[in-house]
Amino acid sequence: MVRLDEQNRNEYETLILDALQENDRKQFRETFLELHPIDQVDIFIKLSEETRKKVYEYLSPEDFSHIFEGLEVKDQKQTYLELDEAYSSEMFNNMFADDVADFLAEMTGEKVEDILKKMNQVEAKEVKELMSYAQETAGAIMTKEFVSISSTDLASNVIEQLRNDAPDAETIYYLYVVDQLEKLVGVISLRDLITAPADEVIENIMSTRVVSVQDDMDQEDVAKLIKKYDFLAAPVVSKQNHLIGIVTFDDVIDILEEEATEDLGEISAAKGATDVNVSAFTAAKRRSPWIIMLMFFGLITAEVIGQFEETLEAIVLLAAFIPLIMDSAGNTGTQSLAVAVRGLALGTIKKGSIGKMVRREFGTGLMLGLICMIVLGITVTLIHGHWMLALIVGFSIFCTLSIATVIGATVPLVINKLKLDPAIASGPFITTVNDILGLLIYFSIATALLDFL
């Protein structure tokens, strides 16, 4: 199998396209199937619909199943519509059950039932089982293609079993050991199996310290566990400890990407609209609730400024520093928000360390405020020649940054305590809240010292 680099990618693409244009089935199969499936996908998605039809003709459903698994959902849907029903049914039979379940989850009910009816009933049963689990749980993301062995087997018999079962398994680096009731009792690595004496009983060489996950465990917790132990896969068990599937590291990568995208969407108040392939209308529809809510928060900001109208009329120059106060408060709060959300997501913020984290952020805010106060004090005095104005602006920024860091750190902690995703404490929300508090501090200080201006 060849993995393309940039240097020979064009050469292979040219050979493949030439073979398709010349209707040279043999040359196409020899060249195309030599490539890594990921490179096959990269080439396939560039082809026209007419050319793709030749690919379906030249590749068997089993060959094409690997390409279909690597496509994005939108490309899978388009490709499925181009396939003959018999071809697609056989393709689904050759795919891993979890990949079929993921695809069917994006389809409508009637179409799902139609696809399942046309599939091999054994394969369809596994897909239905996966689809029966709640979304974003271990059961929903696990694969059924794994190798389990009996604790009473001999090492030589297991090696012989692998010769038959390995081609259909997603991974064989770990072999999971079950008892007569199909309950998980141990695990053995492929290396330990190969190096064990041929007549050794599995029970004597397996490890009984098995780290497993419940079928209803949240997928993010599953990903954290696999990352923590550096597993290539983790067994999934029922509440009765029956082995029912495995979650592999490639699933974990997808989960972490999905969760990171979701958190980014929450923090930026653009949940569901971070995909560049989403239409402008859909993106606007998904972003608008936050934008409208923040717009009303902006009215509160305007009201705060209006309450200090007399102060502004007395010293118009104070208005020049409003953007500075608001931007500094929002930026500092968003930084603390990122620290808190990341800590909660990675599990580094424990129950006993919350106070320490908040104190650290408050200390950071104090030091940032002090630095900004000194810099602003000197700058404003030199530019405007008014030390009292410099004192007001400098002390306001000091108080604002100190409070903004605490708000940015504590709001996601409170939301997490309420069993909600802390990422919903979005950057724009924290920014707006800190804008309002920053203005209140600024104008309160300016009003108190108005007689000295």
TrEMBL record:
InterPro entries associated with the record: CBS_dom, CBS_dom_sf, Mg_transptr_MgtE_intracell_dom, MgtE_N_sf, MgtE_transporter, SLC41_membr_dom, SLC41_membr_dom_sf
Q: What is its main location?
A: membrane
Location in or out of the cell: Cell membrane; Membrane
Q: Which CDD domains match?
A: CBS_pair_Mg_transporter
Please give the SMART domains that the UniProt record associates with this protein: CBS, MgtE_N
| Annotated membrane topology | Multi-pass membrane protein
Keyword list, A-Z: CBS domain, Cell membrane, Magnesium, Membrane, Metal-binding, Transmembrane, Transmembrane helix, Transport
Top-level taxonomic group: Bacteria
| GO CC list | plasma membrane
Q: Report TM segments.
A: 290-308, 314-341, 362-383, 389-415, 427-450
Which GO terms fall under molecular function for this chain's record? magnesium ion transmembrane transporter activity; metal ion binding
- Which residue range or ranges hold the CBS domain? 142-204, 206-264
Q: What interactions and quaternary structure are annotated?
A: Homodimer.
Role played = Acts as a magnesium transporter.
Q: Which family does it belong to?
A: Belongs to the SLC41A transporter family.
PANTHER family for this protein = MAGNESIUM TRANSPORTER MGTE
**What's the name of the protein?**
Magnesium transporter MgtE
Species of the source:
Halalkalibacter okhensis
